[in-house]
Every structure is written in structure tokens, then in C-alpha cells.
């Protein structure tokens, strides 16, 4: 068997983002943690950590972390069957990659009670879909919520529903640019707000109106910042309906062209042998996601 | 003089996050953009782009971008003096690094009208302070809003005020853990929410209550997700007062220990010779930040 004290040290350094906090969590001195990492590297014959701030796993380090995470989930199942094994009731951690807009809107409401009841702590990683699935493949996360359907090897994907986006702007923005009524050509010449280089929602929306060319835009890599910039009249942008309900009801934001939503499907990727906790969370999402997402 | 057609191609590829969109914005074919980048690399004698998705500048590429950005700001000043030079009124882009909580709260309100009046588009980059200042030093951004006071070479820093954070939790969370009243020892054993490995606010808060050890926590690298998780009762966390006003007023969130705020100072770093637009934005922030920030 592996020496799990060494693997636990590696997991703690990566999860806590440093040796000092890893030592705190493990109840060890910092030099003891360093010692364990060095011993692990001697056994493996190569570095397991990239010594930057915060430290990140090397390729082989990632494979070890993947293994630790799987073992932990299996241990958890065993503990339920053999309660005497219970190690003081430390909550389990689940590392999950998800898209920024889900995290900014429905995610916490969907998993809150589940996490409290099952004593789960979550390490959330905000990634667009390609990177999220790459992390999944590398074993860096146990699950990934993203817009891509195709599962990675060893995992399953479950369609949860779609987030509905609407193209919104402030009344002042509408008055400034569309006092004579909405006009797609004019829209393409007003500033948009774009989340980042991988966000093509605004492009898709313009394309759906027959506008294929480039357009002016702010870049704002924050869901809430995106909404604030829209409210402040800096530009128009596709905002999750879930996030703008109050603003739409109060008239603080308006749809720039009535009832032209874009639905973005969301898939839950999870390991096939991820243990009972992950299977339960998957079931929970399967049954509750429809409260927030529209059917595919 | 340099060949600015080539430099503009480099800037467009980096700003647009790819050759295809750069070509759109420049009104060129994609192969023409590639050709210009190759020509630039031949002149410089080394690669200017790292060919990943999205493409990033090499070290020398960053120096060239730095120069392009400075020249653009100076051109803008010249155009104001010699209006005939106006090149069709394309808005100027300002690339700014800032902390996630500012972007999620007061930033858009503070700059909205300024950007509309001055026809400025913003490329925002969310970074914690060290990385933000590193980008500033590399010339990758024109300004940086962060918690670190010391300016990088060639730049000035201006104290804008402080964001006030309060330790908040949901009433259900309080009832579950503090039915017998608040207790710092108990707090250290309930789950917190932490933004990321560089977020020590929760540590500082616990330390201010005399608790020095590690604690359980969720990791949630999203300002709005952080708030949603707090509302959903997943844990307690330090939330900007600006962001939780409604929740505090409605009782959806409560301060876990009455009136124990933590103030985090914010500094605006800007190039000393960044042109008139940047100077105007700096003045604007100097005079308006007090609407959202508390005095230092």
C-alpha cells in the first residue's frame, strides 16, 4: 500500500494553497509537511509540486491527487457501513469545476441543504467548459458542470437543463441608442459587454439577428460585474434570466428586443466510480435542477 | 518609426483572444493577420505570441503591447488638440486589473458615466493584488485597483478609501450553530467560505477573536457565488457591506458578531505618463470613490 500520510500532505498543500496552512490543517509543523513532500518525491522519483504561490501539482502530482480523492470517497462509503471507522467526523471535500454564471445564480441554492446534511465542504473552481473537462480528465476535480455534453473517459454526463439568457440593457442605454425603436444594425455599433475571449453569446445573439461582423465591447470576467456594468449603462449583454429577475421586474433593466432568449444547456459530468457521496449529489441535482433551469 | 500596422495586429490578436476575431476587428483576412504577426516576429527576431488558445504575448510581446498602449493614449491626447486626426471615432480601450469584489459592487457605478461620456471601452482583468501589479509592471494593463499601496516603477498609487467587510451568515446557520449565543471557539469549528488561497480575511477575522488555528472552509472563487453560498447557509464569510445591504436590511443575512467590520484599503495604481484619459479617470475616481468606500 502507498504511504497515505505522504499523499495526505500533498493533498493538504494543494487544497490549502501553501505549506503553512497545510501544516495548520494537518496539525503538523511546516517543516514536517515539507519533509513528507520531499519523501514522496524521493519515492516517486520526480517532483510532485510546482513551487509557486500557491503551489500546484505536477503532472504526476495530479495523478496522485486524483487517486487520493477517489480513495477518500471510497473511505467515506466504507465509514457509512462500518461507523466505528469514523475519524472524528471531518467533513468530506468535493472539488468541483463549474461555470461562473451557475455559481453566481442557482448553484448555492441547489446544493446548500445537501452539503449541510451530508457534511460536505466544496472546493469550487470557476472554469469555462474546455478547461473544466481538462481538470476532470486530470483528476483535479470530482465533477464538472459545463455546457459540453461529451463525457471524458471514466465519467458520465447528465443533462440538467438549460440556463436562459436574455439580451438586456438599462433604460438609459435604450433611450440613448434606440429612441427610434430597436434596430439590429444599430445594436452592432453600440458597446456590448463580453465575459471573456471564450464568451460567444453576444456574437450568437447578433448572428441570430443577421449581424455577422465584429462589434465594440467591454471585457468583464465577472458575472456580477457584468450585471453591474449592464445596470450602469456601459453596454448591452446576455444576462442569465435567473440573475436579473428583480431588475426586469423593477424596470432597472429591459430586454433590448422583446422575447429573444438564448438557452445554454448545462451538463453535469461525474466520475463513474466516484463513490456514494458523488452519486447522491448527482441524484440530488437530477431531481432538483428543474427549479432553476429550463428543459432542454 | 516602428511599423504600427504590425503592432496593431499583435494588439488585436491579444485583445480579441484570437486571430479570427482580430481579423474581424481589423477588417482583414485571418491569413493577413498571421502574416503581419510573422513579419513582426521576423523583425524582432523572436516570437511575440504564445500560440495557445487564447494566444498570449511573450515577454517581448508584452513590451511591444505596453508600447502600443502608451502610444494609443498619447494619440488620443493629440487627437483632442488636432481634431482633424480623428480616426472615425473608434472608442479607446483601457485595460485595467481590479479585485473581484470591487468589480462585483461599486466599479460599474463609479465609471459608467465616465466611460459613456469619454467613449471608453474597458478590458477588465480580475486579479488579486500581486498579480495585478505584476501585470502593471509588464505593461499588460494601464491601471490596477488593489489592496497594495506601493507603486511599481513609473506608476503612482492613490488611496481611494476602504471596502468595509462584515462577517455574515444566514439566520438558519446562526440558529444551527449559535442558538446559545455567539462563541468564537464554536465559530472556528463551523464551515467558513473562503474566496481562494490568497483570501485571508476569514483568518484575520478569526485571529481578531483570538482564534489562530485552521478552520473548515468551502472555497468559492466568485464574489456573487460567495454571497449566494452565505445566503444558502453553507457557511459564514466576510462579505462587502456594499454587496449585502439588501440582505442585511431584509434579515436574509445577519452579522455573526455585532459590529465587527474589517476595512480593506484600496489603491488605484496608474502610469505616471499614461495620457490624459487615464489622468481624467484617475481624477474622476479621486473625487467619486467616497460614495462607495469608507475613509482610510
From TrEMBL, chains A, B:
Superkingdom assignment: Bacteria
Keyword vocabulary terms for this entry: DNA-binding, Transcription, Transcription regulation
Pfam families documented for this protein: HTH_1, LysR_substrate
Domain HTH lysR-type span(s) in chain numbering: 2-58
Gene Ontology molecular functions: DNA binding; DNA-binding transcription factor activity
SUPFAM superfamilies in the record: Periplasmic binding protein-like II, Winged helix' DNA-binding domain
UniProt-listed Gene3D superfamilies: 3.40.190.290, Winged helix-like DNA-binding domain superfamily/Winged helix DNA-binding domain (1.10.10.10)
Keyword Coiled coil in record: no
Keyword S-adenosyl-L-methionine attributed: no
Family statement: Belongs to the LysR transcriptional regulatory family.
Protein name: LysR family transcriptional regulator
Amino acid at each position: 500500500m502507498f504511504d497515505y500520510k505522504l499523499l495526505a500532505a500533498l493533498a493538504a498543500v494543494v487544497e490549502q494553497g501553501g505549506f503553512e496552512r497545510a501544516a495548520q490543517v494537518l496539525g503538523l509543523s511546516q517543516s514536517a509537511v515539507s519533509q513528507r513532500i520531499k519523501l514522496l518525491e524521493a519515492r516517486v522519483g520526480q517532483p510532485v509540486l510546482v513551487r509557486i504561490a500557491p503551489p500546484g501539482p505536477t503532472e504526476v502530482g495530479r495523478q496522485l491527487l486524483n487517486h487520493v480523492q477517489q480513495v477518500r470517497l471510497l473511505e467515506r462509503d466504507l465509514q457509512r457501513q462500518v461507523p466505528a471507522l469514523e475519524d472524528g467526523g471531518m467533513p468530506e471535500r468535493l472539488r468541483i469545476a463549474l461555470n461562473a454564471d451557475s455559481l453566481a445564480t442557482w448553484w448555492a441554492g441547489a446544493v446548500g441543504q445537501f452539503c449541510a446534511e451530508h457534511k460536505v465542504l466544496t472546493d469550487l473552481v470557476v472554469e469555462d467548459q474546455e478547461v473544466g473537462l481538462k481538470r476532470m480528465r486530470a483528476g483535479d476535480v470530482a465533477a464538472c458542470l459545463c455546457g459540453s455534453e461529451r463525457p471524458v473517459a471514466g465519467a458520465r454526463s447528465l443533462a440538467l437543463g438549460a440556463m436562459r439568457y436574455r439580451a438586456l440593457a438599462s433604460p438609459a442605454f435604450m433611450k440613448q441608442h434606440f429612441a427610434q425603436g430597436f434596430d439590429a444594425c444599430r445594436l452592432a455599433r453600440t458597446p456590448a459587454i463580453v465575459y471573456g475571449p471564450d464568451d460567444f453569446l453576444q456574437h450568437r445573439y447578433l448572428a441570430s439577428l443577421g449581424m455577422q461582423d465584429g462589434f465594440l465591447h467591454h471585457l468583464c470576467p465577472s458575472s456580477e460585474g457584468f450585471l453591474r456594468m449592464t445596470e450602469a449603462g456601459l453596454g448591452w449583454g446576455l444576462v442569465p434570466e435567473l440573475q436579473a429577475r428583480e431588475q426586469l421586474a423593477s424596470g432597472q433593466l429591459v430586454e433590448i428586443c422583446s422575447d429573444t432568449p438564448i438557452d445554454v444547456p448545462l451538463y453535469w459530468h461525474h466520475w463513474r466510480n466516484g463513490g456514494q457521496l458523488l452519486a447522491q449529489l448527482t441524484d440530488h441535482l437530477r431531481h432538483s435542477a428543474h427549479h432553476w433551469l429550463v428543459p432542454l
